[in-house]
Amino acid sequence: MTATLNPPSNIGRALDRKDGRVKVTGAADYTADVHVPNMAYGVFATSAIAAGRLRLLDTTLAERAPGVVAVMTHRNAPRTGAVSAPAAMLHLPLQDEQISYEGQPIALVVADTLERATYAAGLVNAEYDLEAGTFDLQTDWSSRERIENGYDEPDTRTGDPDAALHAAEIRFCARYETTYRHHNAMEPSATTAVWDGDRLTLYDATQHVWGVQSVVAAALQVPAANVRVISHYLGGGFGSKGYVWPHQILVPMAARFAGRPVKLVLTRAQMYAACGYQTATIQDVAIGMERSGTLRAITHDVVYANAQREEFPEYAAVNTRVLYACPNIATTHRVLKVNLIQPTAMRAPNEGMGSFGLESALDELAWQTGIDPLELRLRNYAEHDPLTGRPFSSKKLREAYALGAEKFGWSRAARHVGERRDGDELIGHGMATCLMSTYRMPSTARLRMRPDGSVVVEAGSQEIGTGVRTIMPQIAADVLGVDPAAVTMVLGDTDLPVAGPTYGSSSTMGLGSAVADAALKLKARLAELGRDGESYTETMARVGADIVAEGAWEPAENGYAMFTFGAVFVEVRVDRALGLVHAKRCVGAYSVGRVINRKTATSQMTGGMIWGLGQALLERSDVDARLGRFVSKNLSGYLVPINADVGMLEAHFVDEYDDHASAIGAKGIGELGATGVAAAVANAVYHATGKRLRSLPIRPEMLIDA
Ligand code: MOS
Prior knowledge:
Radius of gyration: 26 Å
Shape: globular
Number of strands: 26
Strand order of the largest sheet: 3-5-1-12-9-10-11
Helix content: 10-25%
Bound molecules: dioxothiomolybdenum(VI) ion
Number of helices: 16
Distance between the termini: 60 Å
């Protein structure tokens, strides 16, 4: 059944977040707020070295410390069952003497208070046999490996890029680099495990309760049906809570071991080596072009860092595969194994990094040939997917370019490097194309109408801050033709219908399609039950019992290439004396399918732009190359944009409905906004200063005396 949403419609309306008030008043129950009777507190003791083996682990003092209930180490911890995706790591701590990264748990201390557990964890004494580690992408190019177990091809090739490069009128190649970055969610990861016989309830900060259920069940060798995972609110995740990390397995293990419920909240410092980060990339981009601006060949070769013994797929060259019409394209991805914890997806994985390389390179060619950067992109507009030849499910990128350019005033942008100044500040304009893959996740949902006519959406989804609790009722209300105020949602519980994860910008289209399906079925049921002239409220009052409808959405392969598109335009001001870059204006225009809630959608896109500004100008997790530790393990040493760093932001949407992508016309929203921004900033910095910066983040020392 296809859910056609009702006109005149609630869809697109900028409805306020239903959970806004409880969040800002502190009433929302985050995982760290969970309290259960007889609960003990877990604290990790972690490895001080990055590579080697435990030679000695002395827990005697910790065990004798006041209030300690149990100290779990590799010597006494149960062996886990084999785990697979969505486990973030296949090799779990507390299973052997091997140390693979600094910060790896070597003991889990459980005590009756948090303070006592923290104190006792400090008494765990470890000695190590050190091994040499690799931490830096630049160190060792000989060991580059291909990842074969990802969800996409590591390499693609169409046409003959080498020959076409050689024959092209203009040949360009450059190396671009992005660095390690951490998610820095405001809410640290937290989990509380409560056993009742062989049944586990896990309160967990996760973007995917079902993933946690399956991985924890496999690791602890209990049936998945015995594991209930609950996650009511998340204080951000950005990918760090997407997969299942060791603490989510070790805490329920410790609760069983200790015979008591155990709560563990990772410290801020532990967050830097416990739930992933964005890997660093080195991207070699080569482009062959005609003087007219027609692209003849593009190659994009990516090397990125990956943990020892693990595999994480990061496809930073995916933009290059699909964004521009070009007959000869090759992309490769290789990993360099490093002695750091496993990297993971971080808000805009793949395209977020790769768009820096590709969109910077195109800008360089635009300046080299004197073709306007936007015009260069239009001359190579892809009408279908260059890799597969498939049509796009929807693509209004041309309209997005035009809309963004108009709102920004691109045609009035300066055309010569360094020509605009304001006192000591140099002014520059830059733009880039935005692209994000569309990840379609199957989902189910249930709708319940109560005798008073109110409606509840029930689904085991998660609220990561994007607005699921608001958007799903909006969709249900639209199909039913009722006031969205009469619809609420319960989520974050594996006792509810199976829903997709809250990552990959997938929730609205996937879960939303299931909710629309349930709403159609509920509407049909009400039509059967209703008498002539009766309102829903009257029917329900007469029926006197809940009416329930189950909905589902299963994306089917339909021959379309699915992406979201956009264009971002940035104005920077560069202080010549201090080298500081201020992003004065960011204007994005996006082709994302149907916008369900204009307010939450706009927040997603402007949030993405801010995220991109962080990538461009501030964020870097330096690694101490001697010790293999992330240098800054707190928010005072890791810079993220604050209000003073962010100028004017505007997000615009082209009018679009994609009925190939989902049953409600929507595609993905959030992560697209974080793509393209870093390139647009670097391009604007070039325009302002004449300095081409190919390594992120752009730092003042690169621009002093520009
Ligand atoms: Mo995201 S990196 O899809 O949470």
